[in-house]
Design goal:
- The chain is an all-alpha fold.
- It has a single domain, classed as Methane Monooxygenase Hydroxylase, Chain G, domain 1, CATH 1.20.58.220.
- Helices cover 87% and strands 0% of the residues.
- Helix 2 packs antiparallel against helix 3, helix 3 packs antiparallel against helix 6 and helix 4 packs antiparallel against helix 5.
């Protein structure tokens, strides 16, 4: 078998694995969108759809991880190809965890709806941060498809805005619960939802950092934002 054929088959393997990552990402993105719709409408049926989708996402994570291991064993990649496969393994873990957070939101929505406590708190900040989290995850997947480090750096910057919305909501919620202690149990449910959204943003940020690692060969996790941007834009 010629070297050219081997190279072409390896490229096909990498493209197949990458396409499966994007397919999994699309499922998780749909989970998050539905979870936020369930929260907005306090719709138990939509919440159930989010919960049921989790098994599919989990299965995809295992299948893609196994395929990455098989490609590494068969092809013994080096340099950027190896970084791509390692980053894919980490990316699907973050996607699966983002799906877990969507499932948590759905379960909290069901509990609030069943208890008749769904409309007792103004959750404008939660809704806004949920839209932002879904957006940056979508953009992270798009940046992954294009291996766009400039877009990845912007995603890391934008995650900070989600954190700020979360902190603003927590401050409002604490005040709300102090003024009326009877609402503490409901307030805590909304706090857990807000935290789940914040974590979705964190997972999108992690995926963006892996893109920089693939392209630049530098692990920018736990680095300052200035360092990360220098690597992404260099």
């Amino acid at each position: 078998m010629s070297d050219k054929h081997l190279s072409s088959q390896f490229d096909a393997d990498l493209n197949l694995v990458s396409s499966k990552v994007l397919e999994m990402g699309g499922l998780v993105e749909a989970q998050i969108t539905r979870a936020m719709q369930a929260l907005n409408d306090f719709d138990i049926d939509i919440a159930d759809q989010v919960i049921l989708a989790e098994d599919t996402v989990n299965t995809m994570e295992v299948d893609i991880d196994e395929e990455c291991s098989n490609v590494i064993a068969r092809r013994q990649p080096a340099a950027r190809d190896l970084r791509l496969l390692l980053a894919i393994s980490k990316t699907i873990t973050n996607l699966e965890r983002a799906g877990d957070e969507a499932e948590k939101i759905a379960k909290r929505v069901k509990r609030l709806s069943e208890e008749g406590a769904s409309r007792t708190v103004n959750i404008a900040e939660i809704k806004l941060s949920g839209e932002m989290a879904a957006s940056i995850l979508r953009r992270a997947l798009d940046a992954f498809a294009r291996l766009d480090t400039v877009a990845a750096a912007q995603i890391v910057r934008d995650d900070k805005a989600i954190d700020e919305e979360f902190r603003a909501f927590v401050r409002k919620l604490v005040t709300y619960m102090m003024e009326d202690p009877r609402t503490i149990s409901v307030g805590l449910e909304f706090l857990f939802i807000a935290k789940a959204i914040e974590r979705i943003g964190d997972h999108a940020k992690n995926i963006a950092e892996f893109i920089i690692y693939i392209v630049k060969g530098t692990d920018v996790r736990h680095k300052g934002r200035d360092t990360l941007e220098r690597e992404a834009l260099s």
